[in-house]
Amino acid sequence: MEFFENVKQRRAGVLVSLPSIVSEHSFECGDIYSLYPLGDWAKDVGFSIIQLLPLNDTGFGYSPYSAISAFAIDPLYISLYKLDLNVKSRKREIRSLENHPIRIRNLKLEIIRKYFLENKKEVINEATYFLEKNPWCYSYVTFRILYEEYKGEGWWEWPKEFLDPNYAKEYIFSKKREEALFWVYLQKIAYDQLSELKTHYEDMGIYLKGDMPILTSRNSCDVWEHPEYFIMDLQAGAPPDDFSKTGQTWGFPVLNWDVLEKSNYSWWKERLSYLENFFHLYRVDHVIGMYRIWSIPKDDSTALRGWFHPQFGITKEEFLNVGLDPKRFELLGLIHEFIPDHYIFYWDFWKESGYQELNEETKAKLYPLSELHIKEEEKHWRESGEKILEIFESFSSMLPCAEDLGSVPSFIRESLFERQMIGIDVVRWTKSFTTGEFIPEKSYRENAISVLSTHDTSLALDWWKNEGDKEPKFQFFFDRLGKPRPESDDEILLGLLSFVFGTSSLFSIQLFQDLALGVPGVLENPEKHRINLPGTADHSNWIYRFPILIEDFASDFKRNLVLRKLILDSGRNS
Description:
By secondary structure, the chain is an alpha/beta fold. Helices cover 40% and strands 13% of the residues. The chain has helices spanning 2-5, 35-45, 101-118, 120-133, 136-149, 165-175, 177-204, 221-225, 257-262, 266-275, 316-321, 326-331, 353-356, 360-370, 374-395, 410-419, 460-466, 471-477, 489-501, 520-524, 550-554, 557-569, and strands spanning 11-16, 49-52, 207-212, 230-238, 248-255, 281-284, 293-297, 307-309, 314-315, 335-339, 342-345, 399-402, 423-426, 448-451, 507-511. An eight-stranded parallel sheet has the order 12-6-3-2-1-15-14-13, covered by helices on one side. The protein has a four-stranded antiparallel sheet with strand order 5-4-7-8. A three-stranded antiparallel sheet has the order 9-11-10. α4 (120-133) packs across α7, α5 packs across α7 (177-204) and α15 (374-395) packs parallel to α16 (410-419). It is globular. It holds the Pfam family Glyco_hydro_77. It is found in: Cytoplasm. One of its GO terms (molecular function) is 4-alpha-glucanotransferase activity.
């Protein structure tokens, strides 16, 4: 427990997409073993936090934020080397920047299955014991086997008898018991390897930070087993903004917090308890969604017809009280009856021709209705979000860190500030509200994590070279500090790293690729080294592989010296 309590000191960290960091003992892509040489390097240089993206089983998909289980670790990350299955799959030289996760996973499963069959009695006993301790495995394994059998088809399309999780579990664990225990064994291996890593990191003085996605794939074990925890006719997303005129639709069902509360949030408690076996800190994905979330009819392809959920709405009586019939405006496409006799106003409804063509007297009555309950709703949203976050904190001793990016309403910012939740500040977006200019290092929030890039953005050098005017960047990051203007990519990156480590933020955690000083491929073509481009096809993302082995990266004396000095000078060598 003392180790957890010491985490809140000025620290530097590194964020990695685990499959991207290949070790000399990896099988095709990065795995849990890769985190050992990474940890050795981090400790040597002065980093004391290593952050991972979600490790959940993605099935036939690629995004770890759209997993088929909120609990299960993807077998992709099991280290064959740690299992003493020394199967070599590659030459020392990395020739491609792309992984093929489904192919790699299947090859690993083939190798582990052979070991399983050769040691059946022993490993079945191990799997059975693990199953008794982790009952979530019953539903996950059942779902996983049926998911494979029906080739990733949505569970709602399965034969009727398998729509009943209890029947399905009984069927799989009786008719296909050996196969079921094989999948349990995979989770047992992953658990052992990741929990051992956590202990190893504690001995080294390194904190491991995990990631907890707030939302869950519609085609997942959790939604299949507990559809009551979700509002199935809605999907989560984001409203229109400067980046997307039609907003974002994510496809994930919206959480039914009312039902979750009646179960004492047992699903969340189990998730956090399990996560704590592996991590000291965790990222609360889309923390805004704990307060309210943009909800859209599940079949809509744009987010234009969504609303913030939960919402009181404007009652039919409130329309009638000002002499308006809500059905008229529903026909004009300005409002929507989302529950009987309660209406929401569509986003930017006042821009619609149906609104513009109304007479001024009607507009004067209609528009105020759209703002009628804003103060009450903000109060309700704030209370609801704080209640949820307080409950989360009671479930675990892990330190929560809020992903509070995007358009965060002031009442949520105030709430997170008062709760002293650690937020995140991305340098390229952290600007003055009044002038729109970058802010100096000492003006950064202390209770936050400063970063150059995230898994959803371009790399720092890509942003510098290809996004926006370079002149203000030169003036702020170099001229302002009396530094000569950089003449090379290395010098640009060094200047940005010096800035971000120098911020007031409690933690400064950088994407691994943004630390690639002296790695020509990354510096020359940073656009080829990003992890995810939101809004593009799933299979074109989440496949990135770093161009050199982690051991080779860690052996570069010059780079290590430069990074060590940056961390030391910024006082982050806790």
